[in-house]
Amino acid sequence: MIHMTLIARVRDGLPLATSIEGDEQSDIGISKFTSQAKMLFRKLNDQSPKQCSLETGNYYFHYIIDKNVCYLCLCDAAMSRNIAFAYLEELAREFCAGNAGRIESVTRPYHFIEFDSVIQNVKRKYVDYRNRHHLSAVHTELQDVQRIMVQNIEEVIHRGEALNILDDKAANLAFMSQKYKKDAHILNSRSSILKLGVVTFAIVFILFIFKLYFF
Asked: Could you tell me which residue ranges the V-SNARE coiled-coil homology domain spans (predicted)?
């Protein structure tokens, strides 16, 4: 079963459209998975895998990235990955066909909320993944999904957080280094001024003593 579908822009993680089976209080706790999906969207970038499966408890997130848009669904672990990726690829074709010219310009989350009706129509074609005839057709159209990377959603999310922490530490270190250089420059300047003042005072004092005794 496909429990949830989310579509988001990759460059900033902005959710563009969604479709959820049931409600937020359903037995599987859909709000938890929605939060995980949004955190994942914020981690994606140009170097992210274009197709990936992410294990999360008894379920899997499957996603594809096409033309800077991520298409993601949450499915039962028992559901065929072939069916899930075929579903996502058809969604990508439908979404791009009707909205390609507006994807980069929208700023409001879920701007394409009306796309839910299209998601529901496409989902009906794939909901009975036990249909052997349909599964056979998908096998002939889809590449070998065994080569698609499988990861754990928590590892992906925390890996991104760890990298962010390292980036923050590196930025702080660079800032402290610049601050140290600036402080050192100020101290050196003050030291030079102090030395010059001492030398000047010594010269004036010597001239004063010389004048006092010899003139």
From this structure: 134-194
The separation between CA 200 and the C-alpha centre of its own chain, rounded to angstroms, equals 62
Q: Which domain holds residue 190?
A: 162-214
Q: How far is it, in rounded angstroms, from Cα 177 to Cα 181?
A: 6
pLDDT tens track, the chain, 215 positions: 899 999 999 999 999 999 987 555 555 678 899 999 999 999 899 888 899 999 988 899 999 999 999 999 999 988 888 889 999 999 999 999 989 889 999 999 999 999 999 999 999 888 765 454 455 555 444 455 555 667 776 676 666 544 454 455 555 655 665 666 676 667 667 766 766 666 676 676 676 666 666 65
Q: What is the model's pTM?
A: 0.66
For residue 133, what is the domain's CATH number? 3.30.450.50
CA separation for the pair 194, 202 (Å, rounded): 12
